[in-house]
Write a structure and sequence with these properties.
Blueprint (H helix, E strand, L loop, with lengths): L1 H7 L4 E5 L2 H6 L3 H6 L3 E3 L3 H15 L3 H17 L4 E4 L2 H6 L6 E2 L1 H14 L1
Parallel strand pairs: 1-2, 1-3, 3-4
């Protein structure tokens, strides 16, 4: 569903914010790269910040997490990403409704709600 959404938008450069495990696993990057999309991944320093954001959400500090996510989304857009994929549920919470973001959790929720309405 997320891949279809990205492909339907004609995006070619996607930033990926996610946990180190998700990034290393290729969960998002492998299928996107198979569609000839370039994936921008966080630097080691940025990844530490993303992990802090994830832990902040878990601890209930969404304000700190949102600040970190916003800074990283902005950096990826400045680096040439056309949009940034929030590849972790905690990042979906922290980055809700931020410009230039793609939130798989929201996409899945909207899809399920539309099916229920049918």
């Amino acid at each position: 569903m997320t891949l279809d959404y990205i492909a339907s938008r004609g995006l070619l450069r996607i930033g990926l914010l996610a946990s180190p495990t998700t990034i290393v696993s290729g969960l998002y990057s492998n299928p996107l790269e198979a569609l000839s999309m370039e994936i921008l991944k966080p630097s080691a320093t940025e990844q530490v910040a993303i992990e802090t954001a994830i832990r902040s959400v878990i601890a209930g500090d969404t304000a700190t997490a949102r600040f970190i996510v916003l800074a990283n989304v902005s950096a990826m857009i400045q680096a040439g990403a056309q949009a940034v994929l929030l590849g972790c549920t905690e990042l979906s919470i922290a980055g809700k409704d931020l410009p230039y973001t793609i939130d798989p959790l929201t996409l899945i929720t909207e899809h399920l709600l539309s099916r229920q309405a049918e």
